[in-house]
Description:
The structure holds 2 protein chains of 2 kinds. By secondary structure, chain A is an alpha/beta fold. Helix content of chain A is 37%, strand content 23%. Chain A has a domain at 91-167. Chain A is built from 10 helices and 10 strands. In chain A, the strands form 2 sheets. In chain A, strands 6-7-8-3-9-10 form a 6-stranded mixed beta sheet, with helices on both faces. A 4-stranded antiparallel beta sheet of chain A has the order 2-1-4-5, covered by helices on one side. In chain A, a hairpin with a 2-residue loop joins strand 9 (219-224) and strand 10. The longest helix of chain B is centred in the middle third of the chain and has 27 residues, at 203-229. Chain B folds into 2 domains: 25-237, no CATH class; 238-326. In chain B, strand 1 (144-145) and strand 2 (150-151) form a beta hairpin. In chain B, helix 2 crosses helix 11 (239-252), helix 3 crosses helix 4 and helix 3 packs parallel to helix 5. In chain B, strands 1-2 form a two-stranded antiparallel ribbon. By secondary structure, chain B is mainly α. The interface between A and B is medium-sized, with 40 and 27 residues. Chain B: It is a multi-pass membrane protein. Chain B: Pfam families: BPD_transp_2. Chain B: One of its GO terms (cellular component) is plasma membrane. Chain B: This is Leucine/isoleucine/valine transporter permease subunit.
Amino acid sequence: MTTFLEVDKLTMRFGGLTAVDGLSFKVEHGEIHGLIGPNGAGKTTTFNMISGFYKPTEGQVRLRGEDISGLKMHEVARRGVVRTFQHSTLFAELTVMQNALVGTHMPFRPNIFAAIVGWDREDRRGAEARAGEALEFFGLDHLKSDLAGDLSHGHQRALGMAVAYASHPDVMLLDEPFTGMNPEETRQMMDLMRKLRDDGITILIVEHDMQAIMGLCDTITCMSFGKFLAEGGPEEIRKHPAVIEAYLGGARHVA
Amino acid sequence: MRNLLIFLMACAALIALPHGLSFSQQEILVFLTINILLVSSYRLLTLTGEWSLGHVVIMGVGAYASALFTKEWGVYVPFGILMGGITAALLAVALSFPLFRMKGFYFLIGSFAAGEIIRLLWKRFRDPFGGPKGIKGIDPMPDFSIGIYDFDFFEPVSYYYLSGAVVALCLWVLWRIERSPVGLTFHAVHWQDKLAEASGVNLRAYRTLAFAIASGFAGISGALLAHYVGTINPNSFDVEVMVFVLTWAIVGGTGTFYGPILGCVVLTILNEIVLREMGFEQMRPLIYGAIMILSILFMPKGLESVVQRLFSRRVPEGAKGQEAKT
């Protein structure tokens, strides 16, 4: 059986700088997989290559055995891999509902001729239902008609995920979803992610909040300076000497 | 019910309107309806965040195409107008390949260059474009009668009714597009193209779609113009006209559907009637420029923001939430 999502010897060079260097790891279907590492380890670059934002210099990303590296972002998205962005990348000028409706673009493809004549009522209703469902899941349904730019930071992060969730993804790539959330919001968000996983959505997550990562992930891949460092369950990673060294510095540096 | 009444009254007013005007004012009214379509089609392109400087040349493509189809091949004029629009849209699709490698300012400059190339081609090739003198003696709309009214297309009033009907239909289509999920996607492409792409939106396809639709309707407006005036030349579609379109869109505001239309109507009335009556013949472009600068300085959201303020005061609190939901 082929691996669900496989990153194979992925390399990204920006001029002379090698941001990601021969990184390989596998993500199993239906798990929450964490990608951690110190600042500048190349986590976000890896994300950008998987989602099609960057074209990798070398190596492949395979989804169900199909090579998806070098495809455009919307082509990757149409294969079921949907990402969120760091910070709050949203349509700030549109309402919360409209944001979620953009997320339903893939399951309910707009058709311009049907739209002019008015034959797309079913689709519009379906899209609205799906968008409402996604908002409800992330607890945003009471804010439907607010402008996305006016939401609190935590709500904006949740909306970013609702937009991704509205498209019925198979894999969600979450780029630092807990940034700027208070502990209570983080806890709620973790519960939601477990629910997503139980619905059969595979989650790949980049995060700095160690407590959240350790409590949430089934498997964790740790990288440092663009290279693979260690992989395993939370307990394994917590005690792994190479990981501790990468984060805290080696014993030899301690005077 | 109330809306229907307002709509019928507006229709009646628009039908009665030309009968209270002088002949030259009736002619201006015809140009105004054509320009409304031009500026509204321009707004559809600006929905995706791209501003073009070649829109008037694209309008000219529609005009030339329709003129040549009817003159050379004897195509029935109404079909010629439609084919003019289709030609402009197809040309836009072809132009999108080089132009949409660029965004923002680069697209602006690129579209200007593309427009000038087309204009120079018209000037260079006397056959079939007629060179710098353009095309003369374009077939007028054939006269016809609908029982209660005889259309005689040497009369501006008749042509006003025809172009008014065509423009109204086109505006309805543009409005439907904007209010549809397609329109929402255009907005999404404008505000956050990366997030839109991550949601599966094919950016290139949607930019091209907006460009082609905008160009198609601009082509129809050009064709309407050609069959009214009867003669077109490369200078009828030069950058000076483009500046007028930009001024209408900026002074009116592009945030709403009616903004550019409002800008077009107000500035045309100001330009053609008020300033002409006051005797500013030579100075009119100067005043036009001053209006544009003043409106950018003091009314950055355009005339539409004034209208919105007027209406939001009258709307009671309860109805406001309703408005936001739709």
